[in-house]
């Protein structure tokens, strides 16, 4: 039975053209797929073991049958007196040989290797990327290992790995904290050792400029392993340097300097003072009275005045969102920047073609709402973010002649914590709200880039962030958004 099932899985597997190169860490949605992958792996492994057991049983039975067929007395030197007996012997040996070859050639091992070949397994770069995402989250949200592991602890080996990734990224303070966490989590089953961790603690402390701490951990290592020549040399060096260099005594304060982008992401500032807030408004709009653009009223809110950022509420239904996600899921691939694949943008996305009725309807709706022609717009770009998924501050405008005049950004999910869209130069924080969209012009009426439209996507601390972007271009807007020669507009 198990043999048949395993064979069936192999047939199914070979029919699906699986791509083995999947990137996991840049899409929360892809990571959830790993749950199914894990279940599949464990199930087929169980099946493989069952099949092997079954096969061994069959082979043992065959052996028994073959042995029964051999009835001559092995001790009789003149066994073959009878030509018929000779014939039978020849025939029997030949049949046995065929049967044995047949049964042993059914190598389930080979078959199972085929199954494994099609499995989608995270690569080392996924593992390192996930650790890197955790570290990035810590940096931006000022989190210590104990903050970020409040819901789920890491074991000593896991914490050591995260520490190593931080160390290799020259983030020595973060590395130090992870190595400390790892020491605290050591058990007899840990693969990493206290000696190894003490060495890294000492080195990290040295790199972030705390020589007394580097010496302290170096000395601990030497006490544990008095024959360690490497640490003796290092300790000598640290002690000599100690009298030459000033030290950073504060090992527990993480990144004191943070950019405006980071402070905004943490929600520490919001420039929208109550006075300014009151001036901003919320109303129902019907296309500004332009008869060509009349559409059912849309709830519109002015999020900011300069640059003017409008939030439209409930412009896409949950069902439409589900459909967009369903079409996008199998097509997602790593989002690029103008430089290609970049650490500045950790998400996966796909441009959806308008031959899909829902995509076309949403495009039309955007045209109706903004009053801008969709003719020269890019197709809808759906995006899903990964661990610590973010997009560093950038302009949407690409500097081409027919540039991205405006951006329409649809939020397709709520995000529990993080994931806001921020405009660091003006101090605006836009929180994702499922079904709503925000809209702004990247270009001024005089055609110049509005420098205040630099924006960024904050890392997702908790949740699954989905957005859809519609970038509208200059061509086709000549009569819809009159241009101006004034350098002020
Ligand atoms: C992290 O933990 C420290 C100390 O327990 C606490 O003071 C701080 O508020 C926590 N930070 C966050 C963002 O939860
Ligand atoms: C255990 O540690 C050794 C030496 O540090 C390393 O080579 C090996 O890959 C580790 N094994 C696991 C399962 O992490
Ligand atoms: C989206 O896909 C899921 C899973 O395949 C399916 O259950 C659901 O009905 C689909 N939703 C829509 C609106 O097509
Ligand atoms: C766009 O506006 C046109 C004209 O008012 C209307 O017929 C159409 O239903 C609208 N389309 C969408 C998707 O809102």
Automatic annotation (TrEMBL):
Record-linked InterPro entries: Oxoglu/Fe-dep_dioxygenase_dom, P4H_N, P4HA-like, Pro_4_hyd_alph, Pro_4_hyd_alph_FE2OG_OXY, TPR-like_helical_dom_sf, TPR_P4H
Domain Fe2OG dioxygenase: 376-474
Residues in the signal sequence: 1-21
Residues in coiled coil: none
Alphabetized Pfam families for the sequence: 2OG-FeII_Oxy_3 (PF13640), P4Ha_N (PF08336), TPR_P4H (PF23558)
Alphabetic keyword roster: Dioxygenase, Endoplasmic reticulum, Glycoprotein, Iron, Metal-binding, Oxidoreductase, Signal, TPR repeat, Vitamin C
Gene3D superfamilies reported for this sequence: 6.10.140.1460, q2cbj1_9rhob like domain, Tetratricopeptide repeat domain
PANTHER family: PROLYL 4-HYDROXYLASE ALPHA SUBUNIT, PROLYL 4-HYDROXYLASE SUBUNIT ALPHA-2
Task performed by this protein: Catalyzes the post-translational formation of 4-hydroxyproline in -Xaa-Pro-Gly- sequences in collagens and other proteins.
Protein name listed in UniProt: procollagen-proline 4-dioxygenase
Source organism: Carassius auratus
